[in-house]
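Researcher: We're teaching a course module on how sequence relates to structure. For the next exercise, students receive a sequence and then see the predicted structure as tokens, so they can try to spot secondary structure elements on their own. Here is the exercise chain.
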Amino acid sequence: MLGIFILSLALRFWGLERFNTLVFDEVYFAKFGNNYLTHTPFFNAHPPLSQYMIGIGIWIGSHIPFWHDTVNGLTGSMRSPWTYRWFNALTGSFIPLVVAAIAYQLSYRRSFAIIAGLFTACDGIFLVESRYALSNIYIVIFGLLGHWFLLLALDNQNRRRSFWLVFAGIAFGASVGTKWNGLWFLSGAYLIWIVGWLIQGIYSFSNPFTSFSLKEAGGRRQEAGGRKQEVEGVSQESEARSYEAGISTYSPSSPPSPSSETPLQNLTQLNIFQMLFYLGIIPASIYSIIWIPHLQLDKTYGFIEVHRQILKFHLQLGGNSPNVHPYCAAWYKWPLMTRPMAYYYQTAESISEPLPVMGPPLPAGAGKVIYDVHAMGNPFLWWFGLAAMLFLAGMLVAQIVMPWVKEKRFSVPATLSVDTWIALYLIVNYAANLAPWVEVTRCVFIYHYMCAVVFVFLAIAWFVDQCLRSYYQQLRVLGVTITFIILAAFIFWMPIYLGLPLSPNGYKMRMWFNSWI
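Model: And here is the predicted structure for the students to work with:
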């Protein structure tokens, strides 16, 4: 994990000052961050937390006597690009670690955690968003921290549980305080909690004379042909099913939880009042507090009116059409990554020329070098991840349909394995972060998918981990092959993530589809 963090850190900080200008939405967020330092009132179409963070980074960076070789006045003050980018780079470097922490908390499998962290570190759009003064990186890290803290709370009792629930509420509030779509992370937490109660209710209804709890559903002993005890929380029956599928669900090097196989089995230990307080009142309070400094600076609108103005702004942005913006991409274009977007594109006659900032295109026939920063994911990571998510959905449907076909009645299995819970958690949260965009009619972009795609990373990490731990050599080879392809793809497309100089042929070689340009 330390190696993954160092890799993330190095890729985000290397050449951070390369373009001495404002890249993409830095024309808003870097300026807004500087406005807080110069006490300049302004209207912001989003909640202000990310701009506070950028402003703090500018203030700290301005007091560090390094990395000030290039400066510009585009933010309203003479600043080095490093000062308004470094804090995002540092924050983005921690996202693979948080994803790995969630993976471990879901399964207690170190291999799953390491693979999830590695795959997240090898994604392009997270790398690009971390290298510039943009806001999406903060939505994601605070939303993920909220989920990690919630899982830690479910894994503890009494005061420790309350402690982690408070931090979960604070993190979810901070995510919404960055952009409103951070609310989908919180809705995912509520949905998986509701799913937990539904499973308990369905089992109680179908087995009215049998006491049931989610904890017992994952850890109870089975009686089949004599009394068979579970080994390290994995029942003999579920292990046998896994053996037939060629997948091992038992990891002797990973210690089981003292209370249950996965914290998600403790969901029904949280009642409605705890959810409303810790994941309702606390996030709402944090969100409200976040607005105080901004409203003190810009007194044009009060708390209610500023939200009306923000909503009005977004409703007037226009529909999802290239006529509104050339990179508009509706939600259904995100999973297959059919329309990524260029954040920066300039040309020069040779590598020896100073890096271009702005200027007219080179004349036709002139030899040129292309500098392109593309907000684009790792294609194979996204495509394999989508396939893994569909596999998890199919696995869940099969577990529901097969008993229904055999027994001619709907019922919940007596044993819910760790992997079943992981599948439920990933699918519910993926849907929670993607489904709300179906009804959005304004122009949206591929970076709006970042909140959902992290669960895709977890899905393919789970699948690869299962393959690598399989009894069958073919599946282990498949896991290694998928990992190699994802790593190779990241290296291949790295020049357009980092804005490295490319020849026209090198650029075309990486633009596989016309819709990518």
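Model: If you want an answer key for the exercise: DSSP finds 20 helices and five strands in the chain. Confidence is low (pLDDT under 50) at residues 217-260.
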